[in-house]
Amino acid sequence: MIFSYAAPQAFYPVAGRMVPWFAWLAAILAAGGLYVGFFVAPTDATQGESYRIIFIHVPAAWMSMFLYLVMAGWAALGLILNTRLSGMMASAIAPTGAMFTFLALWTGSLWGKPTWGTYWVWDARLTSELVLLFLYLGFIALKAAIPDPQRADRAGAVLALLGAVNVPIIYFSVVWWSTLHQGASVSLTRSPTMAATMLTGMVLMALAAWMYSIAVTLLRLRAIIRSREGDAEWIRISAGK
Amino acid sequence: MAHAFLLLVRRDLRIALRRRGDVLNVLVFFLVAASLFALGVGPSPELLRAMGAGVVWVAALLAAMLSLPRMFAADLAEGTLEQMLIAPQPLGVLVAAKIASHWLLTGLPLALVAPLIGLQYQLPADALAVLLAGLLIGTPVLSVLGAAGAALTLGARGASVLLGLLLLPLYVPVLVFGAGAVLAAQSGIDAGAQLALLGAFLAVSCVVGPLAACAALKIALD
Amino acid sequence: MLETRELSCERGGARLFAGLRFALGAGALLRVRGPNGSGKTSLLRILAGLTRPAEGEVLWRGRPLDEDTRREMVFIGHASALSDDLTVLENVEFILELNGGKADRSEIKIALETFALERVAHMPARFLSQGQRRRAALARLALATEVPLWLLDEPFAALDGEAIEQLSALATAHLAAGGLLVLTSHQEVPIAAPATDTLVLQG
Fold first, then answer.
1. What percent of chain B has pLDDT over 70?
2. Chain B: residue nearest C52 by CA?
């Protein structure tokens, strides 16, 4: 039954109907998470109020890594099953993944300023996020550079899988590098003692980010389907669904 | 299988011998790039000694990457690449041969020349030995992963710059462990662990890289 | 021996052909005709196993294409597969060995003579004229008599009269010995063969 939705034409209206649900879920979860993060969670002893940016920074970092794996998963599916939709899904996820990576870097930078006086800190997490950003940008750039969409999907899939296999190794090497050079003193990963409320807030925000990602990915997927199947009759008929 | 491997390596080496410029270009770029860093930060010996490991490794990475587009692009243009894909040989063996000739013509010369640059950066003798050893283990990784990158960007617009964007994140572990090994040697610590990690990464990439390269070649010639 | 089932091909988003079905036996010659862009080269590349068809399959001796079946096939496309820095002799030698053959130099020299290349045998391929390049690409056919399936893309293009004669002679002998030949061509094909089919792709 699932495979009957494997054709872009069949999935297009389904995706359209799903978007509002995930958008609302995202909004509600985000409201809850921000409330917990900014009003319920206690002030940190050492960092004061500025630590609250962790409620965006950490979920963004989680999502950036999670989305890369999901993207690689869709890519693998596309290579194995040779379905057009899988390649489009990977293309749809990539910009959102890159956005969360950038958000993690930016919030990390904003956190660094009041805490250590500098806008950039070469700690393990920020540095791995930076490398992850390069992996996302490389994927997007490769797809953009290959004219034929089917070929672009397949080449991108190979790249995504190559990256996915290497990500643990890269992360390990960056962590190793970071401890070698700086010791554990300057590290955003050494977060303030985690009160239960803080964890709740971060989890709520992570779930919100996840719902948001699904909503945005489905929207982007519809746009990709429209642009690729452009002249097909069914597009003209279903415009508006 | 070994016959096909040697056949292709011999052919590539023969061609390279008749176009001597290519190998020399890579080495000259290596020397120039490494010198640029010194020109950029000044000749203070302490600073150079601290930077040396990183500079040599980064310059070697960039120089190796410079020659990667040539791995398949010429064969593609001539039509030899499609003959390789339909030859009754395992594609993996042919890709391994391309990787081997690339390393012999790029990685190996870089590794052998690197100690000279290390001297420019005031590195002591035992650090130079670790530099050489690390590059001998690390440059094959550059060729293996580079093959996957070169195959993926075949026929893509702006291939050489794109290649850099794709490969440099994947090269991070090589850089970290390779340069880290030299720094350890400079501090008097045993560099064995880093070199071992480098070797492990080589082993992993020798499995993953050729697989990706074969898949990418079939996609590129579809 | 060569069979296709429900073969369809898509390139650049456009469907070039669909539902293509044919079967060729020993001694058969199939000529593929059609306007530019109609998919002639794509069909040949699908038969060679380079391109995956959008639908359908190709069977050789009843089996799908794999490494073993490629041993029984010669594909010569538009590109001449010559390395500019190697001599003509070295180029032909390489292609033959790549495909599992082991021809000695005297045999290769005879093949080069067939296509009037003996005088440029030791010249790097970059100095050849277009016609000479095409002849150098075809020279391997003189030594491919054991290979049953020949797939040739516009083999007569850029050839002079004498070379056309030589190629026809080789092809006729190949077919008489039970080989198969599939080629694309704009012009009429000067090969005498008992079982000739023409496939016209509309594009």
1. 100
2. B222
Cross-chain residue pair B86–C85, CB shorter than 8 Å: no
Both structure tokens of B21: 């410029």
Nearest to B85 among C50, C52, C71 (CB): C50
- Beta-carbon separation of B78 and C50 below 8 A: no
**What pLDDT band is residue C102 in, cutting at 50, 70 and 90?**
confident
- Antiparallel, parallel or unpaired: β C195-200 and C28-33: parallel
* Complex ipTM more than 0.85, yes or no: yes
pLDDT category at A105 given cuts 50, 70, 90 is very high
Q: Which residues of chain B lie closer than 8 angstroms to C124, CB-CB? A: 18
Question: Is B82 part of the contact surface with chain C (CB cutoff 8 Å)?
Answer: yes
Topology of the domain comprising A16-225: Four Helix Bundle (Hemerythrin (Met), subunit A) (1.20.120)
**A39 DSSP assignment:** I
The structural domains of chain A, with segments of one domain joined by +, span 16-225
pLDDT in tens, B59-108: 999 999 988 988 999 899 999 999 999 999 999 999 999 999 999 999 99
Q: What whole-number distance in Å separates Cα of residue B83 and Cα of residue B75? A: 9
B18 interfaces chain C, CB cutoff of 8 Å: yes
Cα–Cα nearest to B151, from B136, B166, B130, B169: B166
Nearest Cα of chain B lies from the Cα of C149 at a distance, in angstroms, of 13
C9-60 pLDDT, tens digit per residue, is: 887 777 888 888 888 888 888 888 888 878 888 899 999 989 888 888 899 8
Q: What angle do CA B30, B175, B182 make, to 5 degrees?
A: 85
Per the structure, the count of domains in chain B is 1
Q: Is A225 within 8 Å of A6 (Cβ atoms)?
A: no
DSSP state of C63: E
Residues of B in contact with C90 (CB under 8 A): 14
Q: Which of B141, B171, B172, B197 to mutate to test the interface with A (most CBs of A within 10 A)?
A: B172
From chain C, the residues in CB contact with B15 under 8 A are: 83, 85-86
Q: B37: domain range?
A: 2-220
Give the pLDDT of residue A186: 45
Name the pTM for this structure: 0.88
- Please name which of B144, B134, B139 lies closest in space to residue B194, comparing C-alpha atoms: B134
pLDDT tens sequence across C152-198: 999 888 888 888 888 989 998 998 888 899 998 877 777 777 667 77
Q: How confident is the model at residue A194 (pLDDT cuts 50, 70, 90)?
A: low
Q: Return all residues near C148 (Cβ < 8 A) that are at least 6 apart.
A: C1, C26, C72, C73, C178, C179, C180
- Long-range contact pairs involving C118-124 (C-beta distance under 8 Å, separation at least 24): C120/C88, C121/C87, C121/C88, C121/C89, C122/C87, C122/C88, C122/C89, C123/C87, C123/C88, C124/B18, C124/C84, C124/C85, C124/C86, C124/C87
A174 contacts chain B (CB < 8 A): yes
Task: Tell me the pLDDT tens digit for each residue of A126-147.
Answer: 888 999 999 999 999 999 998 8
Distance, CA of A71 to CA of A139 (rounded, Å): 10
Pull the structure tokens for residue C119.
């005088």
